[in-house]
Amino acid sequence: MSSKEDLINDIQNLLNTYEGIHKTAINPALLEFMDEGTLKNIIGSLLDQKEQLQDSNIQWLEQFKSNKE
């Protein structure tokens, strides 16, 4: 498996970790149009989004927790 294919698989796996969203399959033909740098940027963006979502959830839970006390 090439490095680009590994990156595409990583992107698919990241996308498929979101709850409530249908399984995502990326067309392998995208490999022809994206370089490794672009694919790595996409992975970085997805990881940033997941981190922000997690931080937001933690803040919401802390707010809920402090309202209950």
Describe the structure.
This protein is mainly α and 69 residues long. The chain is 67% helix and 0% strand. The longest helix is centred in the C-terminal third of the chain and has 33 residues. The chain is elongated. The chain starts with a helix and ends with a helix.
What keywords describe this structure?
67% helix, elongated, mainly alpha, single chain, 2 helices, 69 residues
Uncertain runs are none
Q: Secondary-structure element sequence?
A: HH
Q: What can be said about the biggest beta sheet? A: none
User: Into which percent range does the helicity of residues fall?
Assistant: 55-70%
Give the overall shape, derived from the CA principal axes: elongated
How many strands in all?
Answer: 0
| Number of DSSP helical runs | 2
Beta percentage is under 5%
